[in-house]
Every structure is written in structure tokens, then in C-alpha cells.
Amino acid sequence: MSTATQADTPVPVPGVRGVPFVALARDPFGFCMKAAREGDGLVRLGAGPVRAYLVSHPDYVRHILVGNAANYVKGSIMDGIRLALGNGLFTSDGAFWRRQRRLMQPAFHSRQIQRMAETVRETVRDSMAGWAPAVTNGTPIDMLRESVRMNIRIILETLFGTAVDEERSVRLLDLTDRVFAGMTRRVWTFFVPSWLPTPGAAAYRRAIEALDQEIYALIAARRAALASGDAQADLLSILIQAEDSETGERMSDCQLRDEIFTIFIAGYESTATGVAWAWHLLCRNPEAATRLREEVDRVLSGRAPGYDDLTELTYTRRIVDETFRLYPAFPMYFRGSVEDDVVGPYAIPGGANIILSPYATHHDPRFWDDPEAFDPDRFAPDRHDSRAREAYYPFGKGQRLCIGEPMALTIAQLLIATIAQAYEVRTAPGVQVTGHYAMTYQPKHGLPVILTPR
Fold first, then answer.
1. Most buried residue among 81, 159, 209, 270 by CB atoms closer than 10 A?
2. pLDDT per residue as tens digits for the range 284-326
3. What is the gyration radius of the CA atoms in the chain, in angstroms?
4. How confident is the model at residue 24 (pLDDT cuts 50, 70, 90)?
5. Computed from CA positions of residues 233, 234, 240, 244, in that sequence, does the dihedral angle turn out positive or negative?
6. Over the stretch 226-255, which tens digit does the pLDDT of each residue have?
């Protein structure tokens, strides 16, 4: 790996060529990736009073997320997202974040994930039953849309148990669609003067308020059920009853709302997008698809996969890891610097907006051999060395590593194994798949596939 060291005399970060504001308005993700390719893993994007820096060198990423993490907070660059997520784990900092992490940890214990695996099994079974007419007729299904539907059902049942009926589920999905779209439009508003109105701001707020009403109603109903002795094993019940081991405090309704929003929004498309991209890659790499089916057949012997099978489905896990390398669900993270700092040879001023890009790092030939190739075996134990681990961070690094990582990986692995067990999958004729940045990185027009029963 190319190694970056701290400089005795820091130098200014080089800027990009062209007019960054125009390019960002047209294609923010494409502009950032072009800047990353042209830079040394750290490049200045802004001009005038706006100071923004794109970071993709693994050494610089580690410095920001691990080595000097206290200096890089979820600052004003997150304001557009914070409007929806409030002060949840994704947006909070410092002592409050540490408290929330302690309170949230039991909800993501392996026992909870094991229980969730049963929900995954039921969800895939029901979805596949609904696919039967299309499978019989050879009609394409959109693997992205179906993956999102399955993922939403899994999240809803894991969060709320039996409290969400079909009508409410549809309503929550519609509201989440609107909130997620609003968040996407506001990601780059840190480049826009605060006095300038942004398109869709009023609709974004209305969608948040409507989703608020739904979430607060679910919290109130669950508090009442728990007070009457109706114990539940869903995440909402666990969060309501969680006590801080240091202070004995519990979460307020407002804080519960923020954490539920965070889990729901963060998990809304991320895992589903990964599953869709995995099938796109497998359709383009039939040898890998054959190896996947062979492993699934050998390990499962015809039964549905469960949580205890995951450790044996090693090639399936490599497919998941390689998919998140090529297509990390969240291809960019955001931070704000508190004080002046030195990152490698470069001077970073306090008050700067920081964009960290796992997508850029994961595609950088300085750190990956043949980075555009789909090669699950690069995650085999004899190849996935410290060099690769430093350059791989689809779920972040350090203490801010995503608390939902084990849940996301479990869902993705189970969905892929279950579908591979039942079907051979090929891309529908004439389909051209291109990527599209919308907070997550997803197939722009979905992923139409043809399923053939095995």
C-alpha cells in the first residue's frame, strides 16, 4: 500500500481543475470520483468561503476516523440529513453519542440478529411465492425493487414486530421514500448559501412530520403494551427498556424517534442495493455464480439457510464483501474538522467540510490489484491481508463503525444464498445497467432479471 506520513512542514491541499460548483450541481458523485482519481487521496473541492476536502487515501481516512477522530465531527455538513435523523447515532457526537451507543448495543446483539434471520427466511419465502407467475411466464422482475421490498419488511418486523400491518407498512414505505428523496437532494446544500431557498424543502419537512406521527404512535402503543405486561422481542421494545449502565437513564420518546429514524432510513435501501448489485455482478460472472450455487447446495443440502449456516457459506460471504467493495451502499461519508490539523503532508483548516469516499478508495489501483474486476477470492484469508483491510471500509472505521454492520451482512448473505438455492438468475435481454448516486449507490433503472427454477 502507498504509505502517507505526517509532514514536518504541511503544504496546502491541491485544488481541482475547473469550476467545482457547476460540476457538483450537475453530477456531484461523478465530480468527486474524477477529483479522487486526479488527486493524491486528498483534494480541495471548494472555492471562496466554502472549504471542502475529498479524502480517499487509506492512511488519511484512518487519521480522520481513528487517529484524530475527536477533531472530525458530524458538523454542519450533516444539517440537511440531521433535519430528518435528529440526534441519532448517525448524526450525534461526543459524550452523547457514546451514551447512545451503549444504550443501542443490546438491540444489535448476536441473539437479536439470529432472531432476525427467521424473519429473513419467512420474507424470502413469501416473496418467491409472489414471483411464481413471472417465473412461469419468463417475465423479468426488478431485483432492486424486490430486494427493497424484502429489506423493508425485514426492518419493519425487526423494529416493530407485529405492530405494523400491511396498510401501515405501505404508508411507512411511501413516507420513507419521500424523506429519503429529500435527504438526497439536501446532501450537497452545504455548498449553497443559507439564505438561498432549496427545491423541495417544504415537501421534505412535511414528509418528516408525517413520518414523525407514525413513529410516535408506534412508540406510544409499545410503551402502553409493555406497561400492561405484554413483553415483545422486537428492537423497539429493547430500546424502550434499555438503561444506561453508567447513569441508569432511559431514552426519551424524542430520542427513540431519532434512533428509529436512523435505523429505518439507514437500512432502507443500503442492504437491498447491495443484494441487487451482487446479482448484477453474478450475472456478468457466471463462474462465480456456479461456485455460489455449488456452495449453497453442498452446505444446505436443500434446506433453507439459517443463521448457523453463515459461517459455512464462506464464498457467499466473499461475494457480499466484494460487492460492497465495488458498490459500497453509502459511497461517501461526511465530517467537519474542529481545529486545524495535518493529514499526511497536507494542512487541513478547522471548520472544513470533509467528504470521505470508500467508493474512491475501493476503486484505486494503488491499493487494489485490478480494482474494477469482480473477484470474491480477494477476500479469501490468504489474500485479504492488512493492506486490503486498510483500504476497505464500506461501513466506516474505528469507534464509528456502523452498529448495523452485522445485521446488514447477515441479511445480504441470507438473501443471496436463498435466491441462489432456488433460481438461476440472468439479466433480462437488452438491459444496460448504470449506477446512480442518491445517498446510496444503486442501479439507475433497477435491475430487471429473468429467474429460472433450478
1. 270
2. 999 999 999 999 999 999 999 999 999 999 999 999 999 999 9
3. 22
4. low
5. positive
6. 999 887 778 999 999 998 888 888 999 999
Q: Check: CB of residue 249 under 8 Å from CB of residue 127.
A: no
| Bridge-based pairing state of the strands 346-348 and 11-12 | parallel
222: which 3 cell numbers? 409499545
Task: Tell me the percentage of the chain whose pLDDT exceeds 90.
Answer: 56
Cell digits for 148?
A: 427493497
pLDDT at 366 over 80: yes
Q: Which three cell numbers stand for residue 387?
A: 493492506
Q: Which of 454, 452, 450 is nearest to 140 (CA)?
A: 450
Q: List, in sequence order, the alpha helices (H) in 285-328.
A: 286-300, 314-326
Instruction: Identify the residue whose cell numbers are 414486530.
Output: 161
- 46 or 160, which is more confident: 160
Is 11-448 a CATH 1.10.630.10 domain?
A: yes
Distance, CA of 237 to CA of 223 (rounded, Å): 8
| Residues in CB range of 448: below 8 A, 6 or more apart | 140, 141, 142, 143, 427, 428, 431
pLDDT for residue 51: 77
Counting Cβ atoms within 10 Å, is residue 107 exposed (0-12), middle (13-18) or buried (19+)?
Answer: buried
pLDDT band for position 71 (cuts 50, 70, 90)? very high
Q: Which residues contact 368 (CB under 8 A, 6 or more apart)?
A: 325, 362, 378, 388, 391
Q: Phi and psi at residue 112, in whole multiples of 5°?
A: -70, -40
